[in-house]
Design brief:
The protein is an alpha/beta fold. Helix content is 29%, strand content 16%. Strand 2, helix 4 and strand 3 form a beta-alpha-beta unit.
Length: 229
């Protein structure tokens, strides 16, 4: 409901396709236009931490932007911190860097806590007149589907759970959606709102199954862009 409401105010891209089936493949695709290679992801390769990759952050850094990557978990996961700090990001803000945590799940700090930190940083940079590029990798939608209670709507009684999914997975999806809406609702009241472009994109779909050589629909993700000003 939240993403539908906000996507209607921007540009909704319903037929996007992920390059792979893991988050790390989505990161290298979205942030550096890099295709997945056989073997381990380039993000995990030592050679990729030497500043030789063109990323959105390195491009914007050349235009005077400060860049920060936000992740509620630990930067050692998939060796993300080393890659992104080595390729254009000034800061990597991870689980131990949040000072006002309201809920911590197995994967790390909940989405709403990270969004609150981003809102604070966007407000600060805008007040100083500094261009700022923030990237947030959420921790929602991973087993064991832990999220704060009482914030988001629940699936109605009698909801049919699709094959291969769990009821808590659907409720976790509603929490992730609520967190996006809560952030944008608050952002819309801030001074930075009209000077900011917001882009939301899925990193991958469900893990592949079936007999198709390339089950294209399993790679389908959604993206939407808001440019209030």
């Amino acid at each position: 409901p939240s993403c539908d409401r906000w996507a209607a105010k921007g540009l909704l891209l319903e037929t996007c396709f992920a390059t792979g089936e893991r988050t790390v493949q989505g990161l290298e695709a979205v942030l550096s236009s890099y295709p997945p290679l056989p073997g381990i992801s380039v993000v995990r390769r030592p050679q990729a931490r030497a500043g030789s990759f063109a990323t959105l952050a390195s491009t914007l850094k050349g235009r005077g932007y400060e860049n920060a990557f936000y992740y509620g978990g630990q930067g050692i996961f998939d060796l993300m911190k080393g890659f992104f700090v080595g390729n254009g990001y000034d800061r990597f803000i991870e689980e131990g860097d949040f000072d006002d945590v309201t809920y911590r799940a197995s994967w790390g700090v909940c989405d709403e806590d990270v969004f609150r930190r981003i809102d604070r940083d966007l407000t600060s940079h805008h007040a100083q007149g500094k261009p700022f590029f923030a990237t947030f990798l959420t921790v929602s939608l991973h087993t064991p589907y832990e999220f704060p209670a009482g914030k988001s709507p629940k699936t109605p009684p009698g909801t049919v759970v699709p094959a291969g999914f769990k009821a808590e997975e659907l409720n976790n999806l509603l929490y992730a959606d609520w967190a996006v809406g809560d952030f944008l609702d608050k952002a819309s009241t801030r001074d930075y709102f009209r000077d900011t472009i917001f882009i939301f994109v899925g990193d991958h779909g469900v893990h592949l199954r079936g007999k198709d050589l390339v089950p294209l629909n399993e790679y389908r993700v959604v993206s939407f862009i808001l440019a209030p000003g």
